[in-house]
Amino acid sequence: MISIIIPVAPKDEVPAALLEDLSLFPEETELIIVPATRSLSGRANCMNAGAQDARGDHLFFLHADSRLPEPSILALLRSMETGPDGLHYFDLAFHPGSHPLMLVTQWGVLFRSRILHTPYGDQGFCIRKDLFWQLGGFPADVSLGEDHFFLRHARRSGIPLVPVKAPIFTSARKYEEHGWLKTTLIHNILWRKQIRQDRGRWEA
């Protein structure tokens, strides 16, 4: 059984289009929507709280601005069968109609994920619940990049990264609001900063 966990910002809701996508999962699939509150702030805390409530033996962490076509859902189910001990992730794509430069970003993310073995949380993380808690869940003591820290801990612990080899679609809103070049540079700077922070945490 899969428990799908979606953290949402205060006053936000999961879009109806995503809920329609998720209805294509097996009937017994559990959906857990975790709104951020004053007592439950931060994406890591929300996702950990959802994992604590989950009844499924697999946890699928998903961002609310995602879209999952049926072939991608079927690909995830197959991937879980063939790699039950892995951390599964999708290939990132952007909603149709996004700026043409998003194709460059899409290929960059593919390189980072497949070659550098560093997918991010917006690519959807699916992992067995017992493995998730063996890793201690998402680190709640960091303000940004909890998915990156969690992923690196999983890799150090010998958990294989398993590409689903199917797309998950996400919004290009940040790039549209702040500019493609500026957003891309910020993401790369943060990525390198988080690597240094993670090494420091691990060596401390």
Describe the structure.
The protein is of the alpha/beta class and 204 residues long. The protein has eight helices and six strands. The protein has a four-stranded mixed β-sheet. The protein has a two-stranded parallel sheet with strand order 4-6. The longest helix has 24 residues. The radius of gyration is 16 Å and the shape is globular. The protein starts with a strand and ends with a helix. The model has no long low-confidence stretch (mean pLDDT 88).
List the helices and strands and how they pair.
Elements: E1 2-8, H1 16-22, E2 30-35, H2 43-53, E3 58-61, H3 70-82, E4 87-94, H4 102-114, E5 125-128, H5 129-134, H6 146-156, E6 161-170, H7 173-178, H8 180-203
Parallel strand pairs: 1-2, 1-3, 4-6
Antiparallel strand pairs: 3-5
Summary of the model, kept short:
With 204 residues, the protein is α/β, with parallel strands linked by helices. Helix content is 45%, strand content 19%. The strands form two sheets. The protein has a four-stranded mixed β-sheet.
Poorly predicted ranges (pLDDT <50, ≥5 residues)? none
Radius of gyration: 16 Å
Biggest sheet statistics? 4 strands, mixed
* Portion in strands: 15-25%
Number of helices in the DSSP assignment: 8
Distance between the termini: 38 Å
Structural class label: alpha/beta
Strand order of the largest sheet: 2-1-3-5
Average residue pLDDT = 88
**Would you report the number of β strands?**
6
| Helix/strand order | EHEHEHEHEHHEHH
Shape: globular
Oligomer: single chain
- The helicity comes to 40-55%
